[in-house]
Amino acid sequence: MYGWIWRHLPGNTWVKALISLVLVLAVVFVLFQYVFPWAEPLLPFNDVTVDEGMAAVR
Amino acid sequence: MMLRGRTTVRWIVRTLSEICVTGGALIVLFVIYVLFWTGVRADSAMDGEIGKLQHQWSTGPLTAPDAKPAPGDGPTPSAPPRRYEPGASFAVMYIPRFGADWAKPVLEGTATDVLKRGLGHYDRTARLGDLGNFSVAGHRRTYGDPFKDFPQLRPGDAVVLTDGTTWFTYRIDNRPYTTLPGDIGVIDPVPRKSGFNGPGRYLTLTTCEPEWGHSHRLIAWAHLDSTQPVAQGRPSALTG
């Protein structure tokens, strides 16, 4: 998978490395901005109330 | 034939390793997000809420959409319960036991997105300083760990709140009490099992128990000990 991506990036090694870095940062950004905020409430740390009404709403 | 078989094996092994490495990296990133990044975001959100409140309180007269009752008497029975604006901060809480610089905003409501920005006031419970039970929930872990030191609360500890006009000093009455998640009696106007046996001006704090779990809740009760106008300066519980 990673080898395939590397072979399909344009340019010489330095350009490929730069594009790879940008790709990695983009993936991390999407994870922190969208994926993890969605996944985090599924973990138990959010349940701090005694009325489960709010938990049922969300 | 032999060569092709080895190539296939190599491809399978390489793909499996890549999946494992990717999964591992995902887990590490997620742990960083939960333990570190939610705290960074929550701290800045809470500082923002406190700054907003202080700015609001320092500029102009307090916008009083709901006039405060004269101190000392309870709300008139006929008056409908006055609500805070949902999702907005309306008070700042100080608990010296958690550190001299521990100050968190209190927001209306206990929805997930509200608790990311501060402590949440159960919207069905009494208003700050009113007759009844002013109940507040907060994260114990993640999102800035506001109630991390909850188990260290002891009877007599001060919980000080201000709404911009008045300082309210509550005193804790029990060591943290462990209960089940559905036990809504703990935020009743006269909380069950709290030892309070008549109407009064109470405060309840709730958070999760165990620290990283959600099987139980940790509860602390307090009663209103004293109030003083903001003009008289910070209460002795904070300065002493």
TrEMBL record, chain B:
Organism this protein belongs to: Streptomyces inhibens
For region Disordered, the annotated ranges are 57-82
Mind telling me which Pfam families this protein's record contains? Sortase
Tell me where the signal peptide lies. Answer: none
**KW Transmembrane helix (keyword) present:** yes
Q: What is this protein called?
A: Class E sortase
GO molecular function per UniProt: hydrolase activity
- Keyword Transmembrane helix (UniProt): yes
Q: Where are the transmembrane segments?
A: 12-36
Question: Which superkingdom does the taxonomy of this entry point to?
Answer: Bacteria
Q: Which residues does the Swiss-Prot or TrEMBL record annotate as the active site?
A: 139, 208
| Alphabetic keyword roster | Hydrolase, Membrane, Transmembrane, Transmembrane helix
Could you tell me which InterPro entries the record lists for this protein?
Sortase, Sortase_Class_E, Sortase_dom-sf, Sortase_E
